[in-house]
Structure prediction request, 381 residues.
Amino acid sequence: MNNLKLHASKAHIWAIPGGCPGSVAMSAAVPHRETPETFEGKQAHKIAALMIDKYIHGLTPFRDDPAFVAVTDEMFEAADVYARNVRDVSRNTRIAGGEYFGIEKALPCPDINAGMTCITDAFIFNRAAGHLWIWEFKFGHTPVEVFENPQLICNLSAVSSYFKIDGHEDQKITVHAVIVQPRGFHHDGIIREWEFKLCDIRALVNIFKSNGETALNCTNNKICNTGSYCKDCSAHYTCHAALYCGVSLFETLDVPIAETMSNESLGLFYELILRAKQQITCLESGISAEVKERLKSGANVPGFSLEQSYGHLSWSRPAEDIARLIDYFKINIRKELEILTPTQAKQKGVDENFINRFSKRESIGFKLVPINTKKARSIFQ
Prediction:
């Protein structure tokens, strides 16, 4: 396991107190599969880097620029929000290049682990004034907190080592840690900043270093823990701790709901159930296909076997031929006249006014529908 590496992007899993040290070794044993979300994230960062480069050279990124043709409007706008934030600090500090200005820069992080490398989204260091800005650009929807953000802590440690900032200088440097997340719904808005002295993260760096050593020396899942970070671990489906936690979740949901639940709690609980239902349906579809393929190949999947399935019973000859044959038994199996529904008739070209005059829509009760939160989201932007 000497080839194991620590990644800043997964620091919220292995580095934090109460995190999962076993995730590093387990994830390394799982074949890498790029998800649509990670692909989008990489593309957004590439586009943002191009935009920042244009801005610091006095140019304005336009939507019809050939470099942005294959980019969605949403990605273009999100990257532009981040790029303009970096541009504004660059203009105010008059730092737009050189060693004190970094975009997508790979830096070693020896204070946490000798073999660790961090990719900093962006940083600007005004050493003379004692101010250091560092950015994390997030294209995902799940809100990410900026306060003591593990990835930012790792990147800051790398930047500090890069500039050889000692224990005396770090007391004079004010850090502006910024997360830009245009698609994240957060009460602090889409640009969130955490300001502090660089020396304030010494304890966290030491904790990360200790937890990193534990993670690199862990060769099994006996010290795996579960938490909200499990969804970001590529080995969660082989982890006994995560699977056990999942079973416990289903058992918990089976417990009757208290009648004293508030309206707010009830609404939130129902929304979580709907999300879980959708996710479980998608998961079941993929897992069932995998189980079938393995059984077809001759593998033994405990608890399951393949059984031939059949569709609905249907006549093997034309319907009218069957109807005439059954007439001999003096049984009429013919259906009464069937016509298209009003909606189908409209699709065929029947005049809509005619359809509205001779059709009706009966009430069949009520259904729950989620409230559109787009207006609410705009308030926080």
